[in-house]
Amino acid sequence: MVESNSMEEKQELIMNVGEKEKKEGGQPSSWNCDQTEGPKPEPEIVEHRIDIEISDRVRNWIGSVGKAKERRTASLSQTSWPSIPKVPHQLRGTKDFNKFFQPKVISIGPYHHGKPHLHSVENIKPLCAQEFLGSQQRIEDVYKKIKSKIGASRKCYHRRPTNKYDDETLAWMMLLDGCFLLQFILCEGNIGVLRAHKMYLVLEDLFLLENQLPFGVLRLIFEEGSLSMIDEIKKFVIIVITKLANGTPASKMQREDPAHLLDLLRSSLLGWDKQQPQQEKKKADEEHGCWRMMIRRRFGRSNKKQETHSSSQGNNNNRWQSFRHIRELKAAGIHFQPSGTCFLTDISFKSHFFYGYLKLPVLFIDGSTKPMLLNLAAYEMCPDAPDDYVVTSFLCFLNDLIDHPDDVKELRSKKILYHCLASDDEVTQIFNGIGDALVDLDVYKDVKDNIQKHYDNRMNTWIAQAFHDHFLLGLSWLSLLLFY
């Protein structure tokens, strides 16, 4: 009986030791002295599969992913007219959004049609249609042409704003808005029933992103007329350009039809055939990779409120911008000159030992400048817009250069910037306010790198400062002595 109990205790002890060793990650000890040690078989792995049923709703989601590209291709093939987007969400929450992106006097297209504060000018549109078409075209024929292309017109806009209009209403809207726009251009804004102050507000409204007509609709209206409206439209845009930038417009006209009037203004400011900034951007992206370039562009810009440091070693691609405004560049021996054109792409920098020259396009600033520039930048942020980001980068560059009214004063003294605002401080606020809402994609990277290279050479700064303090001061004394 005692022996039986001791055997049971021994077996229980063996089981407890085995379980303890398993918990500690080891193998149970062998209590059988006759068993020889050898390779231990690998434990059998048992797979447990759980079957998850795919519901019909999930199958629809999966199918929509596969059909997304087909829908996109089909949408693009159904119309050759570019889209007219709404202002991106990044800008819709900015301060004074309604002031800079919403029409004040007239609606063009469906986005703002029917708003109460725009109703007074709606009554002028039929009169403009009659005056523009005159006896050369029957209004019924023009309506039929627009109605035949109403599907293409509808696809240019977001679906929700146009869904509340049937084809007839939308076609009639396109006809009246198009005739008003063309008549306004033809008579250079001198529409008899429009007072002078409203004429300037209409001009501002015509270049809002959400207040555009497809250029294809304008062609349907004037293609059979005797007037050469293409030339008239381009002359009209040149007038706007020479107000924005007091330079010589391009002699070579754009060969392809623009998407709309704002697109024509943008391409005119770029000089149409000047594609170098876009080519440089693509080349840089290929060399450094898209994500790396995006990070460098986003965080490589200077912060005007804190000092940043740049290394004088390494190549230009690794330079971080440390200059902050025109006054600092001037102290480093950098002088400013007008480029002689209105093209935003005409920015260049040349370094000559201890001094350099930065050439900038000439700008004329008034009350309508900020809305136009903001809407051009908003257009560049849209998916279907040109992807060179020249206007956006130009505005960010000016934001870097202009930090104080003295910076504006320096540009005025060099005949680069003209304005009719109350003070230089207002101009400073315009560019600082625009630049803070945008992301610089650094189209002018090479120019900035060359400026930074010159700026990093402190010897240039010392020589330039000594030249300014001693040589010019000596000339002043010499002039004073000769005078007496």
Question: Your description of this structure?
Answer:
The chain is mainly α. 55% of the residues lie in helices and 5% in strands. The chain contains 23 helices and five strands. It has a three-stranded mixed β-sheet. A two-stranded parallel sheet has the order 4-5. Helix 13 packs across helix 14. The N and C termini lie far apart (139 Å). Mean pLDDT is 78; it is low at 29-34 and 273-317.
Estimated helix fraction: 40-55%
Please give the number of β-strands. Answer: 5
* Biggest pleated-sheet summary: 3 strands, mixed
Low-confidence stretches: 29-34, 273-317
Termini Cα gap: 139 Å
N-to-C SSE string, H for helix and E for strand: HHHHHHHHHHHHHHHHHEEEEHHHEHHH
Integer-rounded radius of gyration: 35 Å
SS class: mainly alpha
List the total number of helices. Answer: 23
Strand content: under 5%
Mean pLDDT: 78
- What overall geometry do the principal axes of the alpha carbons give? flat
Strand order of the largest sheet: 1-3-2
Short précis:
This protein has helices spanning 2-23, 56-78, 89-92, 97-101, 119-122, 125-133, 139-148, 150-155, 159-163, 167-186, 196-205, 215-222, 229-244, 261-270, 276-288, 290-299, 326-331, 369-380, 390-401, 405-413, 424-436, 445-456, 458-483; strands spanning 334-338, 348-352, 355-360, 363-365, 417-419. The protein is mainly alpha-helical.
